[in-house]
Structure formats: C-alpha cells, structure tokens
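Today's session is about reading a structure prediction critically. Students often jump straight to the picture, but the first step is always the sequence itself: look for stretches that repeat, for charged clusters, for runs of hydrophobic residues. Only then move on to the predicted structure, which in these notes is written as discrete structure tokens rather than atom positions. Here is the chain we will use throughout the hour.
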Amino acid sequence: MNAILNALEWFGKSEQWSGVDGIPHRLLEHLWLSLLAFGITVLIAMPLGLLLGHVRQGRLAAVSGIVVTSSANAARALPTLGLLILAVILTSAGDLVPILIPLVVLAVPPVLVNAYAGVQQVEPGLRDAAEGMGMTAPQVILRLELPVALPLVLLGLRTAAIQIVSTATLAAYVGLGGFGRYIVDGYARQEYDRMAGGAILVAVLAVVIQLVFTALRRYVVSPGTRLQYAGS
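Below is the predicted structure for this chain, in token form.
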C-alpha cells in the first residue's frame, strides 16, 4: 500500500512531466518502439497466417498446421530476457535491433496462429461459392476469408500489441528509453516510488491498448460475425 501511495506522490511531482526523463517523453519513446515492433510483426505474421490458413488440401496444408502449432508452442518456452541477451551478443547493429528481435519473435505467434485459425474456420461452402464466381485466391483471401476471420485476427493483434507494450520495458536494459527506464533506473537508485510509477504506467498503457482494440472490433467487424465470436 505504501508503494502505491509513494508512486502517486511521484506522479504529482512537476519534474515528472517535463524534460527528457519526463513521462510524456518516455511515453513517446515507448510507443515508438512498440509501434515499430508491432508493424514488423504484422508484416511478417499476417500475410503468412492468411496464406497458410487458405491452404486446406495436400501435404502443404499438413505442414502449415505443424508450422503454426510449433511456433505457438515455441513462443511459450522462450525466456524473453534470455532472448534479449542472446540478441545483444549476436548482433552488432546497435541498440535497437537487440530489443526488436525478442519483441517480434514473441509477438509473431499470436498473430500467426489467430490469422491461420480464423481463415481455417471459414465455411468451405463460402469459399467454393467465391471460387465459382471466378474469384482468384488473393481475392478470396482478402474479400471473403479475412472479413469473416477478422474477430480472431483482431484478437491475435490485440494479444501481440499488449505483449509488445509490456515487454518493451526490457529496452532499458540495452540503454533505450521508454517506461522501462523508470523501473531499471529506480532499481539502480533504490527509488521504489519510481519503480512503482513505471510499472503503473506500463499497466495503464496495456489497458488502453485493450480498450482501443475493443473499440476497433466494434467498428470494423460486421454485427453477424461479431455475434459468432462473442466469446473472444
């Protein structure tokens, strides 16, 4: 309880709202890093998930299912901090690449798995009808399968975004900014109000991301499809 009260007092100090170490500046750093990792994740995982989900017959379909399942299981077993340290050791591209590697690696599976599962759950009859109308494979994916799979796709994107925002605090370990600076610097200085304040900021940002995706789902998913996936 004292830690929370001390954190609230820390928020009330004027120096926390201006300068390089102020909350607005750290927020921009955290958002920039998170958006960069999220953008790379979407570029990698979204097309791959949609394409693998579209393939339903033959050996490629079986291999696709194994790849998606294996990636999801592997992500659960990866230690984030260990992956970060390994990336620092193996890369010499500066401070940004080591933190982007674990963020993207850990965020790809939920986007990939949900895009794949969403497309796989599209009724075969709908796709057969679309192909009978002369639609090409890309048209079937973009005009039929993606809209129907959108609730699961958004769920995967939401999971990845929250995971990235939460894990981006590790950027402070390689000298980058963001809210992780409050946690790392607070621990080094034994300023526990700063540490608690940083943790609260990360938690609040994760809640905001949750609300953004909830609103996005309400506006971009058709009512009929939304009712079908009411539990997600």
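Discussion point for the tutorial: DSSP finds ten helices and no strands in the chain.
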